[in-house]
Design goal:
Number of domains of chain A: 1
Number of domains of chain B: 3
CATH architecture of the largest domain in chain B: Orthogonal Bundle
Helix content of chain B: over 70%
Number of helices of chain B: 26
Radius of gyration of chain B: 27 Å
Shape of chain B: globular
Oligomer: heterodimer
Low-confidence stretches of chain A: none
Low-confidence stretches of chain B: 1-27, 322-337
Helix content of chain A: 25-40%
CATH class of the largest domain in chain B: Mainly Alpha
Shape of chain A: globular
Order of helices and strands of chain A: EEEHEEHEHHHHEHEHEEHH
Bound molecules: adenosine-5'-diphosphate, magnesium ion
Radius of gyration of chain A: 18 Å
Structural class of chain A: alpha/beta
Largest sheet of chain A: 6 strands, mixed
CATH superfamily of chain A: P-loop containing nucleotide triphosphate hydrolases
Number of strands of chain A: 10
Strand content of chain A: 25-35%
Chain lengths: ~250, ~675
């Protein structure tokens, strides 16, 4: 795992919402085929950071960045980045499951159709393989034409994962994907994340330190917009370099 | 949680166990109940009973009067008969029904895409500044009286259409003119309802779609519009309801010929609608004749159509709300197992192509014959195919640019129409405005002289209508919001109020004329006009009052009740002052609508000329809208005075609308809900 190449690399990344600086000089590597967790108290900029990786912050007017984020050899912060193509390769799972109010099948075929897939058989294959990868196929295979909103919360979140996988991304960003789920559904998602890292690179924001510890290979601890500490998960939790990190991971604040 | 109990416990117990226990919970309230609480409650209830009884009476009255026609002609013959010629005893209403459908359908075909496009523009692209221009512009559009629309149709639209299609339009008045004008009139409601529903789609749907690499436009088209489909459908249906019941504007520009267009899609032919037939024939018909009854049957058909349309709209809206809670809109989510499921895409493509072919054929065949029409239809379908290929080639970003630019152009075009509309009235009306014009009576059939009696008459009408409808409407609204339980009777009452809320104004005119003018023998009178207009605006006033009162946060009433205040004390001292802004705003808007109305007034109160300024409730009056209609349709050469009248009418209506928005704004900023 140590020899893995960097999938994404941020260099001196700063970000402002209007006049308010939210990220300060973040330097963080994301290793290929690993799970990288980002932890930290709420409001410290975790979501902001991972939304840089697929440029979702663009949806909010008035954001500004400096520094570079290198993905696949290119800086993705620049104005000439093809944002649509980037998002195709860097998928995202949100805090609250947000399936479209359509059938399960239409949720999965939405992305492929968007990017030009038309053949019905091909689409059927994508539906099955995406649902299988998200460990949902067996639960829903008989009701693909029912509303996605009829699924349970955990199933909805896995459907969202399947939807993200349907367009063949390389990186999957997860922003507190289990914070709205019960422990059993959470366990399923964690298991799934571990499975996914074989073929994908996963970056997960989490509020839950145990979760970070259980699933991730690397952990970054953020505090007030700065990456306070970054390293292999066991190092961050057991031998933190920073006193702040130590206090946070031992539950003494935040 | 706890304050809620303090309110409901005494309530429940007082219901089940009578006074003594109430006294135990609420000793001060016992006296209050006898002094003013119960009295007030009874009084409010009486207003509801009275109001609802009248509204039911209208429905029964119309039905009863149409019985003769049903008996003598037969409902089936009436509905399907092809010839409408009451003079020779032919009562076949099918051409009128078809005419109504054609004009309404044409208007929606025009207004739905344009209105939805503008809604998308407001939602997706417009900066806050532009929104702040577009939304009031929309309300301004909605506030223009329909007789002014009709007048502008005659003065601007019809000549314009004749310039464009000199070979096809003999007089300019036509189905096309009617549909365009009605479409414009339906735009505001379509824009506002569909924009609300687009806005209600949760942000998270947008985010999910964008995160999959969709552009903003792709997201709007494939996710947001899909999720808002119920709201958009409701917008279309409300627009249809508005168009169905329209009288003055339609009557002025459609030519009113009771023939089905030949061929059926000949938009240059004249048509006659149900509303226009009633309005045109009612003044000439003998009371109690078969013709008289036949007009009531037309009214009944119209009411039924509007009722069904409004019912569907309400169902759609309610279904969406129930399934989703107030804020989430879910779109179509039921399980779909139709046999077409597999070929859904193919079926849809086929349908779209067929529609494109058919519409291209219909329109072009009017100009270049059948063969040419087929050729154009094929070309249009081919063009659709090619444009799809091209959009695939140039990529989603440029498609978005193209679409959003087009929407921008649509917005500018519609705004330009509004500017032209207002500009023409102002530019031509200003020279007519003089102290003399305002303060003197008309002379030489309105060719010269002024409009003083009409201004006075309109203000008298407004005052009288306000005096009748405000107490009745507001009291009923308070009762329904505060005292009414959800019983069968109350539900029926609400149903009556709801169904009269969308009823075309011509129906009220018909009712007022046959009851007040003829049966009571009042003739055309100020009081008859006031009563008729009051009935027309009552449902709206009740609704807006109920909404405004119900919008007051619960905590306020609970706080008052928790201190032992009686129900009525809470209502009069807390609820009413807090909701006055909303109540008054709704009321003023209703007055704006009432004074712009022509159809009800011209059947009950308004005469073309009146020079003496005597004042009696039983005297006929002049009124601005009817005066404008009269000049525009009966007095050629009175152009200057027409514009002058239109401008004065617009100014009065705009003053009311401005006052309403100012009050709404003031109260909103003060109370914050
Ligand atoms: N759209 C926005 N506009 C302005 N400030 C924002 C916006 N979104 C987030 N912020 C601010 O940026 C900071 C970081 O937010 P976020 O990245 O959501 O934190 P986290 O995900 O760690 O809880 C917070 O202080 C928040 O208030
Ligand atoms: Mg967050």
């Amino acid at each position: 795992m140590t020899g893995n190449m960097n999938m994404i690399e941020t260099n001196d990344l700063n970000l402002w919402y209007g006049d308010k600086q939210t990220l300060f000089d973040v330097n963080m590597p994301i290793k290929k085929n690993c799970i990288t967790s980002i932890i930290g108290p709420s409001g410290c900029g975790k979501s902001t950071l991972i939304r840089v990786f697929n440029r979702m912050n663009d949806l909010i007017g008035g954001t500004r960045m400096s520094g570079t984020v290198v993905y696949d050899g290119k800086n993705i912060c620049g104005p000439d980045t093809d944002v649509l193509a980037l998002r195709k390769r860097v998928g995202m799972i949100f805090q609250k499951a947000n399936p479209f109010p359509m059938t399960i099948r239409d949720n999965i075929t939405y992305g492929p159709k968007l990017h030009g897939m038309k053949d019905q058989r091909e689409l059927d294959e994508v539906v099955e393989s995406s649902l299988r990868k998200a460990a949902l196929f067996d639960e829903v295979k008989d009701r693909l034409n029912t509303s996605a909103l009829s699924l349970s919360g955990g199933q909805q979140q896995r459907l969202c994962i399947a939807r993200a996988l349907s367009i063949g991304p390389e990186v999957i960003l997860m922003d507190e994907p289990t914070s709205a789920l019960d422990p059993i559904a959470t366990a399923k998602i964690e298991e799934l994340a571990l499975e996914l890292k074989k073929n994908y690179t996963v970056v997960a924001v989490t509020h839950n330190m145990q979760q970070a510890r259980r699933i991730s290979d690397y952990t970054g601890f953020m505090y007030m917009g700065r990456l306070e500490e970054f390293g292999r998960t066991e190092d961050v939790f057991e031998n933190p370099k920073s006193e702040l990190t130590e206090r946070y991971v031992s539950g003494r604040f935040g | 949680m706890i304050p809620e109990d303090t309110v409901s416990v005494p309530e429940n117990i007082s219901k089940s166990a009578g006074g003594t226990i109430v006294a135990h919970f609420d000793p001060k309230g016992l006296l209050g109940r006898f002094r003013n609480g119960d009295g007030a409650k009874l009084f409010l209830m009486a207003t509801v009973v009275f109001t609802v009884a009248i509204l039911f009476f209208i429905i029964i009255f119309i039905s009863y009067n149409s019985l003769d026609a049903i008996g003598e002609i037969g409902i089936w013959e009436f509905l399907t008969g092809g010839t409408w010629s009451p003079g020779s005893g032919a009562y076949g209403a099918s051409s009128l029904i078809v005419g109504t459908f054609l004009v309404t359908g044409g208007s929606i075909l025009f207004a739905l895409p344009v209105g939805l496009g503008i809604a998308i523009y407001i939602n997706d692209i417009a900066s806050p500044r532009i929104r702040n221009i577009l939304k009031p512009a929309c309300e301004l559009f909605a506030g223009i009286p329909s007789v002014v629309y009709g007048f502008m149709g005659l003065a601007v639209l019809v000549p314009f259409l004749m310039d464009i299609f000199p070979d096809h339009l003999n007089y300019g008045t036509s189905w096309l003119a009617g549909s365009l004008l009605l479409g414009l009139m339906a735009l505001p409601i379509i824009i506002s309802v569909s924009q609300d529903s687009l806005e209600a789609v949760p942000r998270s749907y947008r985010e999910a779609s964008m995160a999959l690499g969709a552009t903003k436009w792709e997201t709007t088209r494939k996710v947001v519009m899909h999720s808002a489909v119920s709201g958009i459908a409701a917008a279309a249906i409300l627009g249809i309801g508005r168009a169905l019941g329209e009288t003055m504007a339609v009557m002025m520009v459609t030519g009113n010929s009771a023939l089905v267009p030949e061929p059926l899609w000949n938009i240059f032919d004249m048509v006659r609608t149900l509303t226009a037939s009633i309005a045109l024939e009612m003044p000439e018909v003998a009371h109690g004749s078969l013709h008289f009854s036949a007009l009531f049957l037309l009214a009944l058909i119209l009411m039924t159509m509007v009722f069904i349309v409004n019912l569907i709209a309400r169902r759609i809206v309610r279904r969406t709300r129930i399934r989703t809670g107030a804020t989430v809109v879910t779109g179509r989510t039921r399980s779909m197992t139709s046999p077409f499921e597999k070929h859904k895409g193919a079926v849809r493509r086929l349908a779209v192509n067929a529609a494109v072919f058919a519409s291209a054929f219909m329109m072009s065949s009017l100009f270049i014959g059948t063969a040419g029409g087929i050729a154009v239809g094929v070309l249009a379908a081919a063009a659709l195919f090619v444009s799809k290929k091209i959009s695939r080639m140039i990529g989603p970003k440029y498609v978005q640019k193209a679409v959003y630019s087009t929407l921008g152009i649509v917005v500018i075009a519609v705004l330009a129409i509004l500017v032209v509309f207002l500009g023409v009235i102002i530019v031509n009306g200003l020279p007519a405005l003089s102290l003399d014009f305002i303060l003197s009576p008309p002379s030489k059939s309105g060719l010269s002289g002024g409009i003083w009696p009409a201004i006075v008459g309109t203000l008298e009408l407004m005052t009288g209508t306000a005096l009748i409808s405000f107490p009745l409407g507001v009291c009923s609204g308070i009762y329904l919001s505060q005292y009414a339980k959800d019983t069968k009777t109350i539900r029926l009452a609400r149903q009556a109020i709801d169904s009269l809320n969308g009823t075309p104004s011509i129906i009220f005119g018909l009712f007022g004329m046959s009851l007040l003018v003829i049966a009571f023998g009042w003739g055309y009178s100020l009081i008859g006009g006031c009563i008729t207009l009051s009935l027309m605006v009552l449902p709206t006033i009740i609704k807006t009052t109920e909404e405004a009162v119900s919008a007051v946060p619960r905590e306020l009433t609970e706080a008052s009740a928790a201190m032992g205040a009686s129900r009525w004390h809470t209502i009069s001292k807390i609820l009413l002052p807090a909701s006055m802004g909303g109540v008054i705003t709704g009321f003023i808007l209703s007055m704006g609508r009432a004074i712009g109305e022509t159809a009800p007034v011209m059947f009950t109160a308004a005469v073309a000329f009146k020079t003496t300024s005597s004042f009696s409730l039983l005297d006929p009056i002049m009124a601005l809208p009817y005066h404008l209609y009269y000049l525009a349709s009966e007095v050629p050469g009175s152009t200057t005075n027409q514009y002058g009248t239109a401008l004065v009418l617009m100014i009065i209506v705009m003053v009311l609308f401005t006052a309403a928005s100012a009050i709404r704004y003031k109260y909103k900023s003060r109370t914050g809900w």
